[in-house]
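Summary for the lay section of the report: proteins are chains of building blocks that fold into shapes. Here we show the chain for Ferredoxin-NADP reductase and then a coded description of the shape we predicted for it.
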Amino acid sequence: MARAAVSGRLTWRVAELAEATDITKSARGLVFDVPGWPGHLPGQHVDVRLTAEDGYSVQRSYSISSAPDGERFELSVQRVADGEVSPYLCDVLSPGDRIELRGPVGGWFVWRSADQAPVTLVAGGSGIAPLMAMIRTRAAEGSRVPFRLIYSVRTPEDVYYADELRRRAREDAGLDVHLVYTRQAPEGSPEPPKRLGLATLNTHGWPADFAPNVFVCGPTGFVETVSDIFVALGHDPRRVRTERFG
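The coded shape description reads as follows.
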C-alpha cells in the first residue's frame, strides 16, 4: 500500500531485500533486513526513497505488514502500472539489492496489545497491509483480544495473504474474517458481488455498545464511506481510526 510520503526528523537507512514473494498477480511481499532498525508498532509505515544515477529522487510510503521481528520487516507492495516506485520494487528489486528507507512513521493508526478493547478491522484492497501487521502481532504476542476483519476486494484473486488468513481464522477462534467481493465472487459463494455497505458492517463488525477500536484502511472514498457508516451506527468517532491512500 502506498501513500504520499510523510516527512519528519527520521534517519534514512540502508535496507537489504532478504526475501520476495508474490502475494497476488499484482502485489509482492518484500522482506527487508535493516541494521539498526528501532522496531515498529502494527499500523506504522516507512518512507522508501529511490535515487537515479542522474540524482533524480522519488519517494513513497508503504505500510509495514509484519509483526515486529528485530531488524527485519515486510512491506506489501501493489504494482501500479504507471508508478515511479512500485514497478521497480515489484519487478526489478532482487534479494541482496538495497534501497533507502526511513521510519517507522505514524502514531495514531496503530494497535497496542495492552488495549483490551475488541477490534474491528476494515480493509479495501491493498489497505489490508497495516491491518495484517495488527493480526500478526496479535498472534505473535498471544493476545486474546477478539478481532473481526471485514475485507473488501474485487475478485478472489485479489485477496492478499489468502491462505494465511484462512489458516489463522480456522485455528484461532478469536479472529473472524469476512470477505466481500465487489466484481466477482468465488464459485459457490452464498452472496453475489456487491459493495461493502451498512448491513455488512453492522453484521460482521463489533457493535458500538462494545466500544471497539475500529481501523479502516483503503482508498479515500472507501475509507470515508465506511467511517461515516460506523459513526452513523453509534460508534465513538474518536475510536474510528482511518488511513487513506490513492
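Put simply, here is one thing we learned. The chain has two domains: 2-105, 119-245.
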